[in-house]
Amino acid sequence: MLELLPLTESEATQERARTWGQDFPGQAVWVLWSPPVIDDDATLIAQLLLAAARAGLDEPTDLCDFAVDALDAEALLHRVPAPMSRGERQICGLLLMLAAPCDALFAIDPTAGLDLARRKAVRSLLEDCASLPSQPHVMCVSDDPIFQ
What we know:
The protein has 148 residues and is of the alpha/beta class. Helix content is 39%, strand content 12%. The chain has a single domain (2-147), classed as 3-Layer(aba) Sandwich (Rossmann fold), CATH 3.40.50. It is built from five helices and four strands.
């Protein structure tokens, strides 16, 4: 299920965002902040492998591999995020969120800093995540018209 909320200061949106994680007690809930919280000193591939290892995996999830292709992010894998643009950092954050299995994804303004093609790719990716039976519940908070 893909749940969309506007990126506003409304009380209803703030309350839903604040309590959303409580819908999944004891489960893995990943949050993509905008801008994302990422390590500026390690390559993206090293961070993806570390995220997978923390979840007991030898490598990132198939969904992460799919996202690398869908977002045309192969060139980012061997770079450190420090000198990257905001859009590139946003993609890094999204890939890190998908590197390990989870029960729910919470994406706050996931298309910030991205060009139109990548904004569309992010929307499709989140919709795909939400539509597969074995994939997590997805909540997206955004004012990007691409989600309308």
